[in-house]
Amino acid sequence: MIRAYGDNDFTVLVSLINTAAEAYRGIIPPDCWKGPYMPMGELRDEIAAGVCFWIYEEDSSPIGVMGLQEVQNVTLIRHAYIAPTAQRRGVGGVLLTCCCALAKRPVLIGTWAAADGAIQFYKKNGFRITEPVQ
Question: Who is most buried in 35, 52, 83, 113, counting CB within 10 A?
């Protein structure tokens, strides 16, 4: 089941993001990596900046999250994380399909250049790499 984030989800969301982000340790440049990867204050700031999170639940437990943010003339996919135990089971694809259907503008996704797994996932789901100038 996919549902919108609610205020009661904050602590679970922080935990899910930080657990899933461990997969990027060693991929994210060392000068950009921090622990926890998403401190509580930073997540609060993202929500205040308009990131709307969608949560994928299995047996009432959040196992995936993806955010949408309307910026200028695009909808950004932000903070897409799947629990390590739920990866490669289609959760990310379902979340991505849902979020793209909710988007009101063209969708843009950014990820780390060295995040080959994430890049392949997005390409498999119909996205293409653009030049930075675009």
Answer: 83
Q: What is the pTM of this model?
A: 0.90
How many beta carbons lie within 10 A of that of residue 30, not counting itself?
A: 8
Q: What average pLDDT is seen over the chain?
A: 92
Domain architecture of the chain: domains with CATH? 2-124 (3.40.630.30)
